[in-house]
Amino acid sequence: MPEMPELEILCEGMRARILERPIERVAVHQPSVVKTFYPPMTALLGQKIIAIDRRGKFLLLLLQSGDHLVIQLQRSGWLDYRVNGEEATELDAVTIAFDDSSAIVVVERGSRRRANVHLVKELSAVPFLSGVGLEPFDDNFTAERLFEYLQSERMQLKSFLIDQRFVAGLGNAYTDEILFDCRLSPFKITTTLTFQESQNLQSAIKKILQEGTAKLREIVGDKILRCEEHSFMAIHGRSGQSCPRCDTPIAEIRYSDRSTHYCPKCQSGGKVYADRRAGPLK
Ligand SMILES: [Zn+2]
């Protein structure tokens, strides 16, 4: 699942390559991925993309006409960049090709086809976009606001962080890293956090996202990000390896399509949770 740092780096790579290029060809290979009918996708022909931004996990491509192409990659989608000669794959969902034969391709790597594309006149027409919560690098993302949100709904902390209504852009991997950084259990109930813990969480969110983005930028260089990159992470994906802080083996809870990693000593008072006790995370 691409999260904010990956989407930021993807946006940077796309900006350097496709801005202001006339769109010459549009092909929809998986019609169910395109969620809007008007304007039709053919309205992209001859247009140029003049700005590329991100809001939460939505990619926002602004066209010269004022229309917006909004792409949500969800759990297993990706936005590929292809240059002339690179072959199409059966995972391709939507291809938008430019006058120099380069193309951006929305790819759905999963079987459930959750990635989606909206072509709209107004961003307000895109479901869930207006409900996206605070951007971690905006001034209004304060410890006070976060504390209010934490108190507003009783849920497990990791589920809260992944829920896009509160904090924008986080997913499964970065939330593991954030909670490890501020020594909070992923299973802690939101309403039980103290203000101090909420402050620590707010700082950790900013720190981990900032560091992650910087590391990805370094890894990618002048290339384009091709997939999620977790190699630099402290605990996510490191089940059974030593905690970098205390040497305790990192614990993991597996769900059908994701897993949570945490250090029992640093984060849950020594407690190792059994899968059935942790309950399903959203
Ligand atoms: Zn530890």
Q: Helix count?
A: 7
- SS strand fraction: 15-25%
The SS-based structural class is: alpha+beta
The CATH topology name of the largest domain reads Helicase, Ruva Protein, domain 3
Q: Could you give the order of the helices and strands?
A: HEEEEEEEEHHHHEEHH
On the 0-100 scale, what is the average pLDDT?
A: 94
According to DSSP, the number of beta strands is: 10
Which term fits the overall shape?
A: globular
Straight-line N-to-C gap: 14 Å
The largest pleated sheet is described as: 4 strands, antiparallel
CATH class division of the largest domain: Mainly Alpha
Low-confidence stretches: none
- Alpha-carbon Rg, integer: 20 Å
The amount of helix comes to 25-40%
Q: Largest beta sheet: what is the strand line-up?
A: 1-6-7-5
**Whole-number total of structural domains:** 2
Ligands bound here?
zinc ion
Write the layout of secondary structure elements.
Elements: H1 4-18, E1 23-28, E2 49-55, E3 58-63, E4 68-72, E5 77-82, E6 92-98, E7 103-108, E8 116-120, H2 143-152, H3 157-162, H4 172-181, H5 195-220, E9 251-254, E10 259-262, H6 264-267, H7 275-278
Antiparallel strand pairs: 1-6, 2-3, 3-4, 4-8, 5-7, 6-7, 9-10
This protein binds zinc ion (ZN).
Summarize the structure.
This protein is α+β, with helices and mostly antiparallel strands and 282 residues long.
